[in-house]
Amino acid sequence: MSKHILVIQGSPAKGGNADMLADAFIEGVEAAGNTATKLEIADMNIAPYTAPDQPEGDMTQVMDAMKAADGIVIATPTYRMQFSAQLKAVMDRMPFDAHDDLAGKEPALLVAGASPEEVLVKDVLAYYKMCFDESLEWKIRGSVLAAGVFAPGQVAATPYLDKARELGRAF
Fold first, then answer.
1. Residues 105, 88, 128, CA angle at the centre, nearest 5°?
2. How is the chain split among helix, strand and coil, in percent rounded to 5?
3. Distance CA 24, CA 168 (A)
4. Is the pTM for the entire model greater than 0.90?
5. How far apart are CA 80 and CA 100, in angstroms?
6. Residue-wise pLDDT tens for the chain (171 aa)?
């Protein structure tokens, strides 16, 4: 039976490094006979958290897609050693009972950042594990930390796109 993987792409830069990692991952997923959907959250109406009763905007669509998926992959550039603001807004807006709806999902992380890999591991991967592995009890299937990439498209000249494809095939 094939799996359906949701890729939440958190970069506002179309064709940027995180977007390219997401597309390469999806190529791998589809090469393995599975399906994938990419949500471009920068194009969605997801306001930062302000109050429990604020309008949902597109968060309902995000949560429905997360619930329906077998796996959830986050693709993000790093800004100040963390996820993009767009992705952070999604994280802040996730319902407190999301654990109940998202238990058992297979997660992975795709990161593009100018920093060295050890910094991405220490800051970004550790934060991801705290937010998702610990709070949602997910067990990360893998990650691609594209270190040393800053300029748009720079990831194309690295082995990271192949690593993202491999991770997608392994899903």
1. 50
2. 45, 20, 35
3. 8
4. yes
5. 31
6. 899 999 999 999 999 999 999 999 999 999 999 999 999 999 999 998 888 888 889 999 999 999 999 999 999 999 888 899 999 999 989 887 788 888 889 999 999 999 999 999 999 999 888 888 877 888 889 999 999 999 999 999 999 999 999 999 998
